[in-house]
Amino acid sequence: MKVAATLLALACLAGAGAHAQPADAYPSKAIRLVVPFGPGGPTDIAARAIAQKLSTSLGQPVVVDNKAGAGGSVGAAEVARSPADGYTLLYGSSSTLAVNPSLYAKLPYDPVRAFTPVAMVARGPQVMIIHAGLPANNLKEFVDYARKNPTAINYSSAGVGSIGHLAGALLLDNLGIKGTHVPYRSGALAITAVASGEASFTVDAIGTTGTAVSSGRARTLAVLSDKRSPFAPGVPTVAEAGFKTVSADFWSGLVAPAGTPPAVVQRLNAAVVSALHLPEMVAQMKQLGAEGQASTPAEFARFIDEETRKWSGVVKSTGATAE
Q1: In this structure, what is the dihedral angle of CA atoms 14, 16, 17, 19, given to the nearest 10 degrees?
Q2: N or C: which terminus of the chain carries fewer CB neighbours within 10 A?
Q3: Which pLDDT does position 38 carry in this prediction?
Q4: 218-224 and 126-131 as β-strands: parallel, antiparallel, unpaired?
């Protein structure tokens, strides 16, 4: 019996060793980074930038996998159900981690309990762009036009629950005008809708709206921040245009399934923070109209909590719904 007990103990230890991965052994295979939106938007662009740097520093491929749908809920839910081993990660954003809990009555994941924050990556102000064919060269003229044509205004976004959806609703509420939300599958498509005249306006990152504006198919009217952006110093804030301040930064970062070993989380965090200090990464963030946001997992967790409370208030005040 003593021999049997010894053999059983050894078997248990062997089994435990097979499942426990030393921190210095991670990663030993490719990592899948789920982006819960389509290609081309600020979340996707930032995710691909950090994925490339992580591939180099971690010594394993970090493969971006776009899983769009339901304001990011489809991709987020898939990661929430994944093994907590560090090989499936979510590139989360304000939409998936802070907006959706208030916007959707039932979510297929719990943003608080389903994920372990790893590191914030990017943060930047958003701007309002309008179709160039509209008779408005500034925000006041746009509001005047909207009041004279109350059924003519619609706005595009990367989807229901996206930061563009809520920022657009907040902007309309503060301006005292009405508009219809038209969701698309990505930020790039939402911007194209404005450039083509399918949508009156959209709210998105400065970097992603630049091409439509420089082509002359869209105009930038205001930055949704409490101060002007260094990436677009000539664009006035909503408050400078004579209306109530609207602050709606876009932000994004890495989270892992809840229960991911702390050593793995710290390994990933260190790799992200290191990448954000690289000159080429700083330049990529600048092109997006954002700044790298090196943070600890705990700092990112606190920020997500603050943003969740903020957007909960916006959902209530604007009456925004997951239509």
Answers
A1: 130
A2: N
A3: 86
A4: antiparallel
Contacts of 13 (CB under 8 A, 6+ apart): none
Q: Which residues contact 104 (CB under 8 A, 6 or more apart)?
A: 70, 71, 73, 161, 322
DSSP letter at 149 equals S
Return the higher-pLDDT residue of 31 and 250: 31
Q: Which CATH number fits domain 126-224: 3.40.190.10, 3.40.47.10, 3.10.290.10, 1.10.10.60?
A: 3.40.190.10
**For residues 61 and 55, is the Cβ–Cβ distance under 8 A?**
yes
How does DSSP assign 29-73, residue by residue? S-EEEEESS-TTSHHHHHHHHHHHHHHHHHSS-EEEEE---GGGH
CA 322 – CA 105 distance, rounded (Å)? 9
Three-state DSSP class for residue 19:
helix
Tokens 């400078």 -> residue:
240
What span, in angstroms and rounded, lies between the C-alpha atoms of 263 and 116? Answer: 12
CA distance 26 to 189: 37
**What CATH code is assigned to 29-124+249-318?**
3.40.190.150
Q: How far apart are CA 188 and CA 184, in angstroms?
A: 9
d(CA 214, CA 293): 28
Domain limits, the chain: 29-124+249-318, 126-224
The model carries a pTM of 0.82
Query: How far from each other are the two terminal CA atoms of the chain, in whole angstroms?
Result: 66
pLDDT at 15: 41
Instruction: Tell me: pLDDT of 5 over 50.
Output: no
Helix 187-196 crosses helix 42-58 at what angle (to 10 degrees)? 150
Identify whether 27 is preceded by a cis peptide bond (ω within 30 of 0).
Answer: yes
User: Residue for token digits 């010894």?
Assistant: 6
